[in-house]
Amino acid sequence: MSPRNKPPAVVAELGRPETPEETAARKAQNSANHRNRQTINNLVYSLLATLAIVAVIVLIVPRGNPSATKPAVDYASIAQQAQGSEPDALLVPKLPSDWKSNNAELRTKTSDKVDSWYLGLITPKQQFIGITQGFGANDSWVSDQVNKSRIKGTRVIDGVTWDVYDNRTSSSDDGNVEYALVTSSGDSTVIVFGTAEDAEFRTVASSLAGQIHSLPGGQ
Prior knowledge:
Strand order of the largest sheet: 3-4-5-9-8-7-6
Number of domains: 2
Distance between the termini: 117 Å
Number of helices: 4
CATH architecture of the largest domain: 2-Layer Sandwich
Strand content: 15-25%
Radius of gyration: 37 Å
């Protein structure tokens, strides 16, 4: 029997050949099912392609500490440009080359009415130490800078006596002021604060000692 004379398909549920209308409906349903399967397959392929592109991007884009890729701030040049604008010279620590600065600015017209020279440092052990030199500061300003923590004692470094604020064992969140050293000389109140260990604080304090001694009426 030729394909042209092939008998109509038998509908199993009815036990009889399907009518032309049923044949057309069955073919239409089969076509719809095929299109749906193709659509789902295309969505899956698109999703897999997108995931593959994301994976490639993740692999080729360099990752790490974002601040590590930023160029170091030349705080000595910034201080030189601002020198003479305050009653005391701006302190500029001389540190080894593996110390970096991420910020340096002379802060004026502040809400607390105290001008200050601020310097942010990243230590060789990737910890933070900040230096704030306030001009004509008062006790309230100092308290704000050290997050209202209390003096735990004093420390003498290269002839400069510092008040010590040690919050390392505190259960409260003291932010970047885990440890701080505070001293006054001339018209300046100098605060060295941060998250570093004692040896790195000593390095910074030692680098400032000579300049603190040279301030008017210095220690």
